[in-house]
């Protein structure tokens, strides 16, 4: 079917793909043209929806990562505070043992000076002399044992102090490394999120342009249909 109208050059033809309207060199495919625009617009809308979904996922992942970082940071600080408290206790014990050792050394020095200045008065009998020797031997053994225990306690506390210090250093190094890794991952997520937002903005602008184009074509098609109906009635 073809319809022509005078000098306007309006032509209507029923093609294999739908109604075609031509005016001069402009040809519009009424059915197929509008569908093509609608398909293109639908694809753009799906792309925008997918980008928005990616943006939401990135924001959720960044929020979860930030929460995990804060939780881990709190646990590490609590552990460091505990180690610091233990180290202070060990240090206090070391000071106490050192003071006790100084007191024992002072008492021993005073006792040695006292004994040195005292008049030597040996017992008259052999039995009394043997008893005195046994007593001195027992005092010497007890003093030696006390000194050895004190030295062992000091060495033990020193080892514990060094171990706690090493643990604190390791905890601190691990915390710093973990903070660096989490910070780098957060930066990557922020960069990815900004990129997704930019792409979403571009796609949204493209959808708006397609919508404007579709509206303009629909208005043109509506106008041509109206003119076509007028031409058909005039015939």
From TrEMBL:
GO terms for molecular function: GTPase activator activity. Residues 48-107, 147-227 form a coiled coil. Residues 46-225 form the Rabaptin GTPase-Rab5 binding domain. GO terms for biological process: endocytosis. Keywords: Coiled coil. Pfam families: Rab5-bind. Signal peptide: none annotated. This is Rabaptin GTPase-Rab5 binding domain-containing protein. It comes from Timema shepardi.
């Amino acid at each position: 079917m073809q319809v022509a109208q005078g000098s306007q050059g309006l032509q209507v033809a029923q093609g294999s793909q739908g109604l075609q309207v031509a005016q001069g060199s402009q040809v519009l495919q009424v059915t197929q043209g509008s569908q093509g625009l609608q398909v293109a617009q639908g694809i753009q809308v799906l792309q925008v929806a997918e980008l928005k979904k990616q943006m939401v996922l990135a924001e959720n992942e960044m929020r979860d990562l930030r929460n995990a970082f804060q939780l881990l940071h709190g646990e590490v600080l609590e552990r460091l505070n505990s180690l610091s408290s233990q180290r202070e206790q060990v240090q206090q014990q070391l000071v106490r043992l050192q003071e006790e050792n100084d007191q024992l050394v002072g008492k021993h020095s005073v006792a040695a000076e006292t004994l040195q200045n005292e008049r030597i008065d040996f017992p008259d009998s052999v039995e009394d002399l043997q008893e005195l020797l046994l007593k001195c031997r027992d005092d010497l053994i007890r003093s030696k044992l006390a000194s050895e225990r004190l030295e062992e306690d000091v060495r033990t506390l020193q080892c514990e102090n060094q171990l706690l210090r090493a643990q604190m250093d390791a905890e601190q190094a691990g915390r710093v490394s973990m903070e660096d890794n989490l910070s780098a991952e957060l930066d990557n997520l922020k960069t990815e999120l900004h990129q997704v937002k930019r792409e979403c903005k571009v796609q949204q602008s493209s959808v708006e342009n397609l919508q404007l184009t579709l509206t303009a074509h629909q208005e043109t098609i509506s106008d041509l249909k109206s003119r076509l109906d007028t031409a058909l009635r005039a015939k």
